[in-house]
C-alpha cells in the first residue's frame, strides 16, 4: 500500500519535471537552425496567425537568414516583447532580433546592431474619409489610441497637442477596431506599423496615413554583443535593397494602405559600424 | 545600486502613489455599488417570489462563472467600441466608470453569496419569532434578518473586499491607468531594477490589503452576535 | 438557518395572490430587460445573421476557439496540480511544530495571498525573460502557471491549515497515544480527513484558477479570451466574446455542480467543513 503510493507520487513528480524540461528544452537548438526574435502581435510586421508568421520583419528576417545559409524551415521564430529584447540577445536565447528594434546609443551598449534596414517615423493613422487631421498639430481635443507601455502617444501630448485624449489598449489590433468604429480619431506609432495594420485582412482600404512623420526611428537587426555575423548581415541588407526584394517586401506588407515610404531616408544604407 | 537607491529612483521617476490612488478609488466606488447590487440580489434570492429567486440565482451563477477579464474586455471592445455606449462625457472618466461598473457587477455576485451565508448564521427562531408577531417578508428581512446577517457576514464580506481590491488591477484591460499598467511601463524602461519594481507593487498591495483583513477580523469579533 | 422557507410562512390566499402578482411583475421585468437588450442590439445592427455566422464556421473553431480552449485548460490543469502540491507543502509547513518553518510559511502564504495575480504574472513574464531558464516562446505560459500556483497554492495552504484545525481534537490525541510522532499524526491521520473535508472548497478554488487563466491574455498567452479577441477583431467583437464567456460559464458550471454533488456526498462521511 505504502509502496504503491510512493510509486504514484514519484511518477507524478517525474511527469511534472518531464513536462517542464520538455517545454524548455527547445532553447538549445542545433547548428542547423537559427532562432530569430520577432513580434507576434503586430499585423503587417511580425504576426503569428495561429498557423504561420507574416509581416515585413518576417520577410526581411527570412531573406537575411537565407543569405546566411538557412532555409525558411530552419528558422525558429521566437516571440520577443520589447522589454525582453536586450536580455534575450545577451542570454543567447535568440541569434538575431528583427522586431521594430530602433537603434539607440543606450541599446548599443549591450547589443550589436546591423543595418538599419528601414527608417521609420512616427505618424498618424486616420479613417480614409477624415479631412481634418493632417499632422500632429491637429490633434487638440481629438481622441488618440496607443498601446499600453508605448511612449508614442505620450510624446504627442507632450509636444504637439496638450488637450488630446488618450486611450491605452492592449494591442494595435484593438486600437484599429476603435478607429474603425469612430470611437477614436487617430492611432499613432511608427508609420510602417500603421501601414502594416491598415493593409491586413478587412482593414484594407479603410484607413490612411497622414504622411507627416515627426520622428526618425532606425530599425536595426539586433545581434548579441561581439558577434561575428554583423558584416555578413550588412552585406545581405545591401543585396536585399539592390535586388529589389526590399521594395517588394515593403509594398507587399503595406498594400491597400496607400502608404509610401519616406524616400529621403529609405531604402537605407547599412551604416552601423559592425565593431 | 543599493535597494534603497533603486526604490528612491523609482519613486522619483514615477508617480507610484498616484497609480495606487487610482486602485483605491476603483475599490471604493466598486465596493459601494457591489454592496448595493449584492444586497438587492440577496434579497431576491431569499424572497418568496419564485421568479425573483430565479432571476437572482441566474445572475449569481452567470456572473460568478465568467472571468472578470472578459467583462472588462467586453466593456471596452464590445460596449464602447462596437455598441457606442458611453458612461461619461469625459473621455478618461468613461473608462474609469466602465471599470467600476464591471467590478461592481462581478463582485456583487460574491457580496450576495456573502450576505446569504450571513443569513444562514441567523437562527431559525429569529425568523419564526418575527413572523409570529405578524411581520411580513420585507419587514422580517429588513428589521430582524438583515441586521444580524450582515454582522454574521462580516468575514466573507471582508474577503470579498480584499478580492475586489486586488482585482482592480484587471481594470488595465479596460484602459484604466492603474498600478499594474504602471508596473508594466516601469519594467519596460527600467528593467535593470525589476525586483525593486515588483516589490514596490507587491508591498503596495500588502500594505492596502493586510489592514483590511485585520479590520475585518476585529470587526467580526466586535459585532459578532452573541449566541 | 438552513431552509429558505423559514423566512416566510406557508402562504394563505392573500399571500398567494400577492406572490402571483409579484411573479408576473418579476417575469415582466425579466422580459423587459431581455427586450431592452435585444432592441439595443437590433438598433446597433448586431442581430443580423452575418454578425453571427462566423461563429459557426469550422475555421473559427479549428484555428481559434479550440486551440484557445486548449490553452486555457492546459494552463488551468497544470496550475491545479502545482497549486495543490504548493498548498500541501506550505499548509503542512504552517502546522509544523518547528517555529522557524511555521513563521516562514506563514509570511510567504500571507504575502502571496495579498498580491494580485496579475502583478505576479506580469513580473514573472518579464523577469523569466531576464534569465535563460525557459524558451521565450513558453514564457507567457509559465508566467500564467506560476502566478496562478503561488496565489492559489497559498489559498489552498490556508484551506489545509483550517481543515486540520477543525478536526476533533480526539483524532490527534488518539494518534499520539498510539505512539505516533506529531509529523506522522499530521500525515497519516489529520491530513487525509482534512482533505476530504476541504474538497468542496478546493473545487471552487479550481473554478477560480480556471477563470484567472483569462488574465493571461494581458501577457500575450494564447488562451480562450485571446482567441476570441483575435476572431472578434477580424469579424465582430461582441459576438466572439459572448461565445468565449459562454464556454467559461459552461465549464465552470460543470465544476461547480461537481463540487456541490461532492459536498453533499461527503457531508455524510465527515462532520467538518474547511473554510478560509
TrEMBL record, chain B:
GO annotations of cellular component type: ATP-binding cassette (ABC) transporter complex
Keyword Membrane: yes
Major localisation: membrane
TM helices/strands, residue ranges: 20-44, 65-83, 95-115, 193-219
InterPro entries: AA_ABC_transptr_permease_3TM (IPR010065), ArtM/GltK/GlnP/TcyL/YhdX-like (IPR043429), MetI-like (IPR000515), MetI-like_sf (IPR035906)
Record has Transmembrane helix as a keyword: yes
Any one GO molecular-function label of the UniProt entry: transmembrane transporter activity
Localization per record: Cell membrane
The ABC transmembrane type-1 domain, residue ranges: 20-216
PANTHER family: AMINO-ACID ABC TRANSPORTER PERMEASE PROTEIN YHDX-RELATED (PTHR30614:SF37), MEMBRANE COMPONENT OF AMINO ACID ABC TRANSPORTER (PTHR30614)
Protein name: ABC transporter permease subunit
Organism (species): Rothia koreensis
Lineage per the UniProt record: Bacteria, Bacillati, Actinomycetota, Actinomycetes, Micrococcales
UniProtKB/TrEMBL annotation, chain C:
GO cellular component labels: ATP-binding cassette (ABC) transporter complex
Gene Ontology terms: biological process: amino acid transport
Localisation per UniProt entry: Cell membrane
Ranges of residues in domain ABC transmembrane type-1: 69-259
Main location: membrane
A GO term for molecular function: transmembrane transporter activity
One Pfam family this sequence matches: BPD_transp_1
UniProt keyword annotations, A-Z: Cell membrane, Membrane, Transmembrane, Transmembrane helix, Transport
Superkingdom per UniProt: Bacteria
Keyword check for Lipid metabolism: no
InterPro entries: AA_ABC_transptr_permease_3TM, ArtM/GltK/GlnP/TcyL/YhdX-like, MetI-like, MetI-like_sf
Family, as annotated: Belongs to the binding-protein-dependent transport system permease family.
Official protein name in the record: ABC transporter permease subunit
Organism: Rothia koreensis
